[in-house]
Input
Amino acid sequence: MDHFAIFDEKFFSDVLLAGHESCASRRKLLLAPLLAALPLALSCTTAKAGRINSSETHITLPDAIKWSGWINGFPPHSGQMATLYGGLDKPGPYLVLMKWYPGYMSAPHSYATDRLSLVLSGTWWVNSGADFDPYNTVPVPAGGYVRRVARTPHYDGVKKGAHEPAVIGLFGIAPVQFELVDPGKPGWRKL
Output
């Protein structure tokens, strides 16, 4: 039995030593690139941006987005739009940013095609149906997604008292063909 105890002790000693050497080698492999990069990290040079081929990649930084007036007939300061790609009346796909200011909502309306909406900032209040009832709208915070099904009435906006406007990214296929449920009334509601 003593013989087996010596074998086990020697065996485990060799395994542990091999494991220790293996760990040391792994540490060296992990530290080498970090140590090699240290002089660059400690230098005072700044990184330079590369160049992009604008015929292949289009970039618009936030300060360069052109926000414009709202839908015809909507009051000033109720909202703004920025068309990033395509257009609501041009056949094909579109990407539009919509900004709703607190205290304004759309009247019930529909579109000819589905619309996919992603809330980018603020809280957007939405509901479906032909009857306008802002107190039964559902809040959709930043990061939330809303799909509007073609030819179904709905309304949305930002409730009065909100601290910021809601900015929504709108995606779909145009022409949109915006239609009010009641064309005899304005397309917006002030809360």
The chain has one helix and twelve strands. The chain has a mean pLDDT of 85. Helices lie at 2-42.
